[in-house]
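Complex 841.
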Amino acid sequence: MAEELDKVDVVVVGMGWAGGIISAEMAKAGKSVVGLEKGIDKNRSDYVGVKDELRFDNRYQIMQNLTGHTVTSRNEIDETALPVRTMQNMQLGTDVGGASVHWAGATYRYWPYEFEIRSQTIDRYGADKIPEDMNLQDWGITYDEMEEYYEKWEYTAGISGEQDPLAPERNREWPNPPLKETPSLRLFKDATERLGLHPFQIAAGNLSQNYENPDGEQLNACMYCSFCTRHGCDFSAKSDPLATVIPTAMKHDNFELRTRANVRRVLYDEDSGKATGVMYVDENTGEEYEQPADVVVLAAFAFANNRLLMLSDIGEQYDPETREGVIGRNFNGQYNSAFHGATGFFENEQFNLYMGAGALGAAVNDYAADNFDHSDLDFIGGGAIELRQYGFGAISSSGNVPGDTPNWGQEFKDKSLHYAYRTLTIWYTSIAMSYWHNYLDLDPTYTDEYGDPLLRATYKFGDQERNIAQFGIERCHEIMEEMGADIIEDGNVPEEFNHVYSGGHYTGGVVMGDDPETSAVNSYLQMWDVDNLFVVGGSAFPQFGGHHPTPTIGALAYRAAEGIERYLEDEEQLVKAPGRKFI
Amino acid sequence: MADIGEEKQFSRRDFLKTTGVFTGGILGGSLLGSVFMNQSQMLTDDDPEVSEESTSEDEAQNESMEARTFFSRSEDFETLAAATERIYPEDDNGPGAIALGVPYFIDRQMYGFWGQNSQDYSYGPFEPTSDTHGFQAKLNRGEVFLAGLRRLQELSMEEHDTAFADLDGGAQDELLRSFESGDVEIRGVRPETFFSLLRNATIEGVYSDPAYGGNKDMQGWKMIEYPGPRMGWAEDIESEEFMSLDPEGLRSYQGGGI
Ligand SMILES: Cc1cc2nc3c(=O)[nH]c(=O)nc-3n(C[C@H](O)[C@H](O)[C@H](O)COP(=O)(O)OP(=O)(O)OC[C@H]3O[C@@H](n4cnc5c(N)ncnc54)[C@H](O)[C@@H]3O)c2cc1C
Ligand code: SF4
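Predicted structure with flavin-adenine dinucleotide bound:
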């Protein structure tokens, strides 16, 4: 029998950006909070002195171990899903800080259009523009409403940015100036300007200068050390929860962090229709505990948020046959159709590409959102075109060879040594849509180490995904040509999703909206059906925007925190759904 | 969680000595505030005192790692060595896989958690020949290597009546290509899976930090002009010129010992 612990105001599951923000805000508000993290304890000193490409980029040292637990994957509804077995193909966050520690730091707000994509598409192009199989949805919140939460997250994180000439005006400047400009970024900016596009420096979670955030946390200036993406920062210069919100929460005695606490169920009372707490296993001892709470917050990343609801039998599971139910519906993400573009090889230029930072880069948003006319295009939405100087290690740089080169042997060696630092890639971070046939449910065959079913992802591309990839490749090619590359290689439009879950951009399944028929949570990420259960993170995205997700996850977490505080006072549903009866 | 402000991985003196920073203005507040100085006060990375000392330490440590700890039959290991050398051969640019210690690197990788797939999902049922879902073998990587190398040897004996390691380069390549293109059978794993493991592990052995036993004397890094882990490039990141520096390894970055 699980041991029952003392009740708290709020229990938070998962300690990435999402859970860290909720924890810090609740702790600041004087609530009693318990944070439960499945992984081990980590703080900033864990990343000092460990700059090692093999360990982090190739062996995924700080990602979730899949030993007893992964996701199964298939394209078609009638296919048998197979487990994604290796960390090469499934990169999830773990330990205190989550994936939010090994993120790169590219920081984009979503566009006003993206929050109201369905209405605005119909307004401008008519309803026929939306393919029949696509579940295109508005978010139930507008950009204007999001602005204050974006700003709050950006100031907590200390983002280094510059105003994108095409983006809506901001209420306040970015908290820090942009990162430095390198020759490769200049080449991209000059070329795009000549093409009449509008380049800017990507806003970065890598700090351009020393900074104290509004919570009093100190961040340091980025050293451009290059051990950034998939690594933790050596210098407290990458904005992550370990440098910001988690220490803020820890300063308050009313916050308690428990690590190796693997949450297996949300406890739910049928009679009251409320969540009563969570059940977790202390992975140190194997003992089970029940942690009662007035409010339960799931912030364990999209996959675990979905699975915990399904295992706990909360909310109605989506069924693709009847197209009813909301849990697992609108599973989406940026997979191998996004991030497609062109690679250029420069005979006469060698760039210092071993230097860099996760989000050091330049971009144009001319082909983002609805910033360009889609009347004659066979897709909707868009994305940024980016050039990044991540800072590449020797193993990854050795893969820079023109495509007709064999990938081993004498010729490979010769060319890879020659081109290692003469190669630049630009890509299109294209939007990813939701369809009735893409969803999450529990797998009938494979289980985790406790015998609980694994989460099963069913995902295939719509025509939109292939069409937008082709469009992105062509635009990237034009820019690369203008940049003066001697050899240009275009990406191939992928035929189908290949079951590789790298990059951490998968979302949906517990989506937000203003209609309980097509969404599971309201715009405070509060469940329509369970007033004291908040599901926070990318799981709320009705479809993916044309940019990286984390600022939107952070902003929504600040909004959810506001909602939780209000709920603790009034104990009711915060949003009245149109046409819904409340008793 | 312990107070972040108190924790330190190394003594400050060691760290400053090995990362090429001298004392001066102190950054505000947090963990590294007391360790790292303002970027403008970094010494250049080719400070002679620092790099000479640390490079020789990095070079000295490889030798004792050259013993087999995973592959027990020397025949398997010779097949492995010959195959890695075809993937990354010695040439005018410099040493090949064998001289760089790659076979020993792979031996140690197979002995460790990665070779045993101890962080991968390994419950059944299995579909080892699935060509759509990545690695699906029941075998772990160490077992895949053994199965693949033995099949390579077997085919070499069948077709040439000669051990793989003794074949000429052209014949070795031809056999390797038949694995790469999936034209042979290995029980329990796709031949392409074996080949890409072999190919990727070889490249990793050439270019990963010498701490893992490959990239001997950092010659892989020298060939490709990679400088190794450094404290940072804030001073040089805007430079127009390509900077080709003598590499330094993780050992010197961390302070060269305890
Ligand atoms: C290589 C890489 C680069 C990226 N770069 C960018 C970028 O440049 N820009 C960008 O916007 N985004 C980027 N991302 C995405 C970004 O990392 C995620 O969007 C973000 O971290 C999500 O935050 P989160 O708090 O929702 O989840 P996470 O940070 O993953 O936190 C979830 C936490 O929940 C814990 N957990 C899971 N299950 C349980 C359970 N049952 N019980 C208890 N705890 C549990 C996990 O261990 C984890 O610590 C990148 C991702 C990757 C992988
Ligand atoms: S590049 Fe900058 S932010 Fe990234 S790990 Fe290095 S110092 Fe930290």
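The radius of gyration of chain A is 23 Å.
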